[in-house]
Amino acid sequence: MTGALKRAFLGLSKALGLFRIAGWITRKRLRILCYHSFATGEESAFRPKLFIEANTFRRRLAWLAANRYSVVPLDQAVEGLGRRTLPPRATVITIDDGFVGVYAHGWPILKEFGFPATLYVTTHYIEHDAPVFDVAIQYMLWKTTRGEADLSGLGLPAAYDRAVALGSPEARAAAADAILALGEAAEEESERSRFAKSVGERLGVDYDAIGRQRAYSLMRGRELEELSAAGLDLQLHSHAHRLPEEGWAVERELAANRDVLEPLVGRRLAHFCYPSGYWSRAHWPWLEQHGIQSATTCEAGLNDHTTPRLALRRFLDGTNIHQLEFEAEMSGFKDLLRSIRVRLHPGARLLVVGLQVFETAV
pTM value? Predict the structure, then answer.
């Protein structure tokens, strides 16, 4: 099913007034938007889900304002969800990780509209002035113009200890997996950076220039402190951007995350975002023990008073999301379709033409 056909279905649904009806039905449910970073250059072409174009983000916020969505702080939303006192179409804007693009582009646009937002910060790279390793490696493999690269002598598996063809997306993805596995095993960030620079040399991409540009780097402490003082809500996202299920590991990640962030904001933090969207109910007792009042996932959908506070749903927006898809999510239309799909008997689905088209498209 092509994207054009999917958009045609959504366009017809909107023209028939189904978005408006869905908005009324779901008006008391909480919407949570998810972003990562904001770009004015090639970052959005490289990873459109990770780096939304700044102008696209501005259009999204303008649409929310024009359609009278109630953009509220996370604290207020969590409290209102439990008490069933949310304003109509309540919406929370969340941002993950803490990339420099938030400071350079995202926060200024949020200020234009006077919208509150929450930034979930992972803190390892705050202490290391280097691009995020996995993003930098993937970017260099995307950026290189070489159809073949000599990766010998880097310590990679035997299959890569030679000249390797990089002519297809599959070949580059496989090379990225091998490079990332070796780099992640390094004990020190400085060692990882030296390794990344060597990879860049083999690919003909200047790793040092990537570091200077900072598009793939996280903010430093002073930048986070400045945004917090200006009104951006900083919250927890783990220290090393991972959350194993073992209780001691959860405690270690939360403690390290708090130790960096809380001195910057001057208060106890109580909200959390699961790194990479991975979560388990096994995490909940440990999160509760450490005073976590809410935790967000990357699962699409709206939230109501029955949604577990430690498994709040969000919609991950990006440059590759068409405006109609954004409106379908925000109106609640796609959430209603998901609910219908779950409830209908498989045979009955064939009678619901619109739903069948949608299911084929997603």
Answer: 0.92
